[in-house]
Write a structure and sequence with these properties.
By secondary structure, the chain is α/β, with parallel strands linked by helices. The protein folds into two domains: 218 residues, Rossmann fold, CATH 3.40.50; 92 residues, no CATH class. Helix content is 33%, strand content 20%. It contains twelve helices and twelve strands. Bound molecules: adenosine-5'-triphosphate. Adenosine-5'-triphosphate binds next to strand 2 and helix 1.
């Protein structure tokens, strides 16, 4: 079996609540008990509503976020027990991260050439001449004309800036790249170009890619496997090809049913109320306060992961039946009395 590029085992990230005072005991459970393994060259899409922990998961995978407990193994080595110099090298050279907004992610005082040389200089890659040649190669790779090398980020279009950010993330030939909403700050007209560039680079360079997005259509198109998150928990992992009609978690089905244009025109599966606070998550299954299938069992314990096929697991006490259509679920949910909102 190949060693995963990165593997999370029972990984938790807990923050102090932003609105709290220094003495506040409020905690945000941003990532809870995450188990996830990413193989070399694999593309994982991460979906879920705002605040469910997608970015926290992504940052934890590339070592930008230190977990509160649990492990992050990078190429078989525990990232947070290795010595700090080895960790900095692993994070700095083997992983790359592409952020949502290239305008803020790039230093606006540095030229494109300096931005792309920086990681090569920091990690002392090759001679000065080799670094210059790598900068030219990187610009080529992401389709940036060489004449832009001496320009500043502010002189570039949004799409060109994101190409610079992608080139910078690839400068040291990482094995794993995380793209966190890489197109949401861009004009609609250039989004497809950037996505196609990422897909093309991933194929050519054999990268593992973690792709976080609210755009469920795109996640499905880009990914081999899709991870559904709800309130800090991974509730389902499914091959992208199965996610629409064979997902077993009621939340995955509800999320996808609410995406225009994915299924035949249907009303979305109705969910009750808002997402609960990540500071006071419900006991048991976090989705139970909005789920039409929830009963008292769901309030007692978080369900264990259940296999649903190769590379497909879900965590639910009352999963959607195999082969059950989303149309049926819409009717079922509409006819079911809302669950109790009392929690924990
Ligand atoms: N540094 C922090 N301090 C306190 N709370 C934080 C911090 N970072 C994230 N959070 C909280 O952790 C939870 C998960 O945040 P995260 O950004 O991972 O979610 P997300 O799914 O990526 O959200 P979005 O889709 O809106 O970007 C949220 O409740 C968020 O407010």
């Amino acid at each position: 079996m190949t060693t995963p590029i990165v593997e999370l085992r029972e990984t938790h990230v807990v923050h102090r609540a932003r609105s709290g005072t220094l003495l506040s005991r409020d905690r945000v459970y941003a990532l809870t008990g995450a188990n996830l393994s990413i193989a070399p060259g694999e593309t994982i899409g991460v979906v879920g509503e705002s605040g469910c922990g997608k970015s926290t998961l992504a940052k934890t995978l590339v070592g930008v976020q230190r977990p509160t407990s649990g492990t992050v193994s990078f190429q078989g080595h525990d990232l947070w027990t290795m010595n700090p110099a080895a960790r900095r090298t692993a994070i700095g050279t083997r992983t790359g991260m592409i952020f949502q907004d290239p305008s803020t992610a790039l230093n606006r005082r540095l030229s494109i050439r300096q931005i792309l040389r920086d990681p090569l200089d920091v990690h002392k890659r090759g001679s000065a001449r080799e670094r210059d040649s790598r900068v030219r190669e990187l610009m080529d790779l992401v389709g940036l004309p060489k004449v832009l090398a001496d320009g500043l980020p502010g002189q570039l279009s949004g799409g060109q800036r994101q190409r610079v950010a992608i080139a910078r993330a690839l400068a040291l030939e990482p094995d794993l790249v995380v793209a966190d909403e890489p197109t949401s700050a861009l004009d609609v007209s250039v989004r497809a170009q950037i996505l196609n560039l990422l897909l093309d680079l991933k194929e050519r360079l054999g990268l593992a890619l973690v792709f976080v997005s609210h755009d469920i259509q795109t996640v499905r198109r880009m990914s081999d496997r899709v991870v559904t998150m709800y309130l800090g928990r991974i509730v389902e992992e499914s091959p992208a090809a199965e996610i629409l009609d064979r997902a077993r978690h009621p939340y995955t089905r509800a999320l996808f049913s609410a995406t225009p244009g994915l299924l035949d025109p249907i009303d979305p599966i109705p969910l009750v109320g808002p997402v609960p606070s990540a500071t006071h998550p419900p006991s048991g299954c976090p989705f139970r306060t909005r789920c039409w299938k929830a009963d008292e069992v769901c309030a007692t314990a978080m369900p264990n992961p259940e296999p649903a096929g190769p590379a497909h697991t879900f965590r639910c006490h009352h999963p959607v039946g195999e082969g059950q259509s989303t149309h049926e679920l819409v009717t079922q949910a509409a006819a079911t009395a809302p669950p109790s909102r009392e929690h924990p």
